[in-house]
Design brief:
Length: about 210
């Protein structure tokens, strides 16, 4: 989805500092194969937020081939080390992530799981400083209680695709994915346990702090 005004997405991506050649290769792969990575401006926002809270333990639900993981791993590494959970149910993507993240120097930080992400979070001991969610959109509302249970007090949830290419703006548009995103938005913005808002970066990034 192109941001409004036209050209804003490109402008914001252009403000992100130069990236490691391996990250640029991952961006080129996404463009060539139309793989939905979060992209430079959202990746950088994830890195900034993780740095701001000094995140040392991060859990990602729906990690792809490791592009978003790299931004969290950079923050954790700079905060003094810790662990970042990379969870995706595609073996091929997990294998690709291992290669990319090793080249980027993050190998020792990453915990790889090839499995359903919400079940993996349920089985993993918390607490986490930051949890990032980018799974199939219909799974968003059901993931929320599992996420809340595993975030430390003051921990941060980040969720991608909260504008869903603008579909959420059309009240007459209903499909399971769009309605699931609307439901997650309602849940986090009406529950006083969360301090939540959507940053209109690229496809919309929910940032919510758990009290
Ligand atoms: C949008 S892509 C992730 C992109 C990644 N966050 C990035 O920016 O680099 C989502 C990936 O998670 C996988 N996925 C979706 N739902 C999942 C689930 N419930 N459990 C595990 N993997 C899931 C998809 O197959 C896909 O490979």
């Amino acid at each position: 989805m192109e941001c409004m005004p036209e050209g804003l997405c490109g402008y914001l991506d252009g403000l992100v500092p130069p990236r490691h050649p391996e990250l640029m290769r991952m961006e080129a792969y996404a463009a060539e194969h139309r793989f939905p990575i979060i992209g430079p401006s959202c990746g950088w926002a994830c890195y900034q937020i993780a740095r701001l809270i000094g995140a040392r333990r991060v859990f990602e639900l729906g990690s792809g081939y490791g592009y978003s993981t790299a931004f969290f791993a950079k923050a954790v590494q700079e905060s003094g080390g810790g662990e970042v959970f990379h969870v995706v149910w595609d073996q091929k993507l997990s294998d690709m992530a291992r290669q990319h993240l090793a080249v980027l120097g993050f190998d020792g930080l990453i915990r790889y799981h090839v499995a359903e992400a919400v079940q993996t979070l349920r089985r993993t001991a918390g607490p986490f400083d930051l949890i990032f969610c980018d799974i199939d959109k219909q799974g968003y509302p059901a993931a929320l209680p599992e996420i809340a249970a595993k975030l430390r007090p003051g921990g941060v949830l980040i969720v991608d695709n909260m504008l869903w290419h603008g579909k959420i703006l059309d009240d007459n548009h209903h499909d399971p994915e769009t309605d699931a995103i609307r439901e997650l938005t309602r849940l986090v913005t009406t529950d006083p346990a969360w301090i939540a808002g959507i940053l209109p970066l690229r496809d919309g990034l929910l940032v919510a702090q758990h009290r």
